[in-house]
Amino acid sequence: MDAIVESNMQNHMKEESRVQTLVSNGCVDYKGRTADKQTTGGWKASPFIIVNEVAERLAFFAIAVNMVAYLVREMHQTLPNAATHVTDWIGAAYVLTLLGAFLADAYLGRFRTIIIFSCVYSVGMVLLTLSASIESLHPPKCTKKPCIPASTSQTSILYCSLALIALGTGGIKPCVSSFGADQFDMSDEKEVVKKYSFFNWFFFAINMGALLGITLLVYIQVEFGWTWGFAIPTVAMFCSVLILAAGFPKYRYQKPTGSVFTRFFQVVVASFRNHCKGVEVGRGGDLFEVNTRESDIFGARKLAHTEQYRFLDKAAVVRDVEGNTKNRWRLCTVTQVEEFKSFIRILPIWASTIALSISFAQLSTFFLSQAAKMDRKLGPHFEIPSGSVPVFSAINALILVPVYEKLIVPYLRIKTGHPRGITSLQRMGIGLFVSILALFSAALVEKMRRNHSNPSSLSVFWLFPQCFLIGTAEVFTYVGQLEFFYDEATDGTRSISSALFLSEIGIGSWISTAIVKIIEGATGGEKKGWLRDDLNKSKLDYFYWILTGISGLNFLVYILVAWKYKGGIDRSVSDESVVELQGKN
């Protein structure tokens, strides 16, 4: 009997120990069971995700930094047109993240979305490589002006390949960072610290991929031709899909929660319906919540009621206790209302950081055009490719991230008592301010270059300050946005929240295109305006001064928005998720 009792006690202790290692954020393993911290997630799974991001960024930047040159030299487009086409393409790639995020959160899940869109991306890379390698798919080399323009079919094949790459980017980008963050349980203090460390190293991986893309692959494109320059990242993308799939048993998976936009519309419709019927919050009605441990949203935990945006609370007011509580177009749960509130809450922060993306757009367009007109010799036998100039930005990020993570954060943590040293909003604010300095520097350097008696004799290293400062701004802002938009999202809006901040990169690129077109039209077009096909006859510094003014004004708006932000700088919405709400709030 003693042996039986002892055996039962040991089994009970083992079961209790196993329960303690289970995650509490709703994630499951590949068999659909609640994920175990000992066998899944954490840094056991994250390296597979980071390697996938390195390969995708390598391919994207290998194309982005040289596509202006490809369109001008191989497809015979003018410089302003090529620059706007590239910014339009980059804009589409990042705005499409909203589609990828929607599919991930609603139907496919993050892992499946990444795999599917990585394959789409790879197909686009194959088509791009064929477009560059088969002579009939691009116009003949230009021997004298005017050059023979690309035919409609040649341009269509090129744009089709770029569209597939943009679509692939749109599916991958919003899911990778969120999928990586899913590998860490926010209720575990040790894993919380590791999660914020993951965001920093994830950004490090982005810049590692960018560094390889704008140095090694640009060099290969210049020395060995466009075919090799596009073929190598194509192979890298195929390998990244295999590497990501290899981590399949080690991942933690968040279940799809259904269409978040449908739930948002239900809250709006139910709110207006009850408002039109004279319903008042707190008078004559209780707020409705299901009487279960989990929320009514599949795979999502419950959220506590907040006082902000009380008009939306009308969607959850119970007017008839005996009535139908299943129709969400008439009656929503508190959790559903709070999910919509959390999304609305972050929109002002999102809108007030878009101008930063206008600055980033110059890194792959006009910064490169400046470099092409300057002395790029590094010793007697080597010339830096103009497409490799963004290396100044990438190297800065590669150096600053480890320094920030290992030295600055521990120091600030002691001074401020904050687990991340400074808050996400403070980090974004620093990045916005530095971007103003970057454009200020760009305007001064371009003015000096334009007024120089021999602009081609100026060293390309004069562009180092503006690229370095843009890289610094990106380190602070991008990682701050990763942290902020993930923390302030609910279980059902993780991917869509990540996509929201990524979409501002696309919108910023489109705004940059619009500003270029407006300036062209207002100043005399490509022949006589500020932005001409010949950069030496242009007034690019005037364009940079305009962007500096826009960034300065945007910074002031951001300060006001961040100061008034009521979501709680450090508060994760999901920290409030296990609540039981019945009756009046």
Beta-strand content estimate: under 5%
- The assembly state of the depicted protein chains is single chain
Q: Evaluate the radius of gyration.
A: 26 Å
Largest sheet: 2 strands, antiparallel
Reading the helices and strands in chain order gives HHHHHHHHHEEHHHHHHHHH
Helix run count: 18
Structural class: mainly alpha
State the helicity in percent bands: 55-70%
Main sheet strand line-up: 1-2
Outline the low-pLDDT stretches.
12-18, 568-585
N- to C-terminal separation? 53 Å
The total beta strand count reads: 2
The coarse silhouette is globular
The pLDDT mean sits at 80
Main location: membrane
Protein name: Protein NRT1/PTR FAMILY 8.1
Subcellular location: Membrane
Membrane topology: Multi-pass membrane protein
Protein traits:
transmembrane, two-stranded antiparallel ribbon, disordered C terminus, mainly alpha, single chain, PTR2_symporter_CS, 585 residues, Protein NRT1/PTR FAMILY 8.1
Ordered list of secondary-structure elements with their pairings:
Blueprint: H1 2-20, H2 46-73, H3 79-95, H4 97-108, H5 110-133, H6 152-181, H7 189-224, H8 226-246, H9 260-276, E1 286-287, E2 317-318, H10 334-351, H11 354-363, H12 366-372, H13 391-416, H14 424-451, H15 464-487, H16 494-523, H17 525-528, H18 540-564
